[in-house]
Amino acid sequence: MAQDDRQLTVRTRGLSRGFDGRAVLNNIDLEIAPGEFVALLGRSGSGKSTLLRALAELDHGVPGSGTLEVPQKRAVVFQDSRLLPWARVLDNVILGLDGDDAAERGRTALAEVGLAGREKAWPTELSGGEQQRVSLARSLVREPELLLADEPFGALDALTKIRMHGLLQELCAKHRPAVLLVTHDVDEAIALADRVLVLDHGSFAVELTIDLPHPRADHVVEIAEYRRTLLEALGVEVAV
Ligand SMILES: Nc1ncnc2c1ncn2[C@@H]1O[C@H](COP(=O)(O)OP(=O)(O)OP(=O)(O)O)[C@@H](O)[C@H]1O
């Protein structure tokens, strides 16, 4: 089959973005297949969020060029859950949804993220991890073909983060959105992704397929090898 005939959820060609005359993304060709989970690593300032915002079409006014194909049915999750403080949890989840069954769908999504019974809570009554669960439910209820996540677990403690990895993995296995996860965490990328990309100086320096079944934690030898490859690509010396 010719390459361009493949069914893809994301396709960029020659995507470039820059600020103040300085190139941040340089001719990026990115393809994400339906249901594929891609993690994006890169040093601070390498352009990860710039790429994610371009895919979310949240970068109007940013100078750039290239083409971008993304589905309309997409959702974005940020490090900060961005819940509306004056709306109860269920209302946050279904805000803007049409249909008589919106509340029912919202309840189902909340149950899926482990928050059944918390529909009437205010966001401030929830822990950081619970707020991120609500944020995931708000995305899920929209049945996105593409989930864009910008360091969604970056502010969580280590244990909560591991639980959230399990939850996200479970939700993705069930709903099969294509995912682009921006993260600083090499272990998170290896735990979750089918493919890891390392962004450096505006283009992909490394592309690594994580060829392990889920759950992955027991595959310590392979994980160590992937880890070494990715840390080297990020310029971190690994002394073992
Ligand atoms: N709105 C903006 N105006 C000017 N420069 C910007 C703007 N947004 C991003 N930049 C610059 O573009 C570069 C890439 O930023 P970006 O936020 O995409 O990096 P990142 O890899 O996500 O970083 P981090 O890991 O620290 O979040 C940085 O040098 C940043 O200062």
Sheet with the most strands? 6 strands, mixed
CA-based shape: globular
Question: What is the CATH topology assignment of the largest domain?
Answer: Rossmann fold
In percent terms, what proportion of residues is strand?
15-25%
In CATH, what is the homologous superfamily of the largest domain? P-loop containing nucleotide triphosphate hydrolases
* Ligands, ions, cofactors: adenosine-5'-triphosphate
Cα end-to-end separation: 44 Å
The level of helicity is 25-40%
CATH class categorisation of the largest domain: Alpha Beta
Which CATH architecture of the largest domain?
3-Layer(aba) Sandwich
**Structural class, from secondary structure content?**
alpha/beta
The sequence of SSEs as H and E is EEEEHEEHHHEHEHEEH
Number of helices: 7
> Average pLDDT across residues?
94
Protein name: ABC transporter ATP-binding protein
Keywords: ATP-binding, Cell membrane, Membrane, Nucleotide-binding, Translocase, Transport
GO molecular function, one term: ATP binding
InterPro entries: AAA+_ATPase, ABC_transporter-like_ATP-bd, ABC_transporter-like_CS, ABC_transporter_ATP-bind, P-loop_NTPase
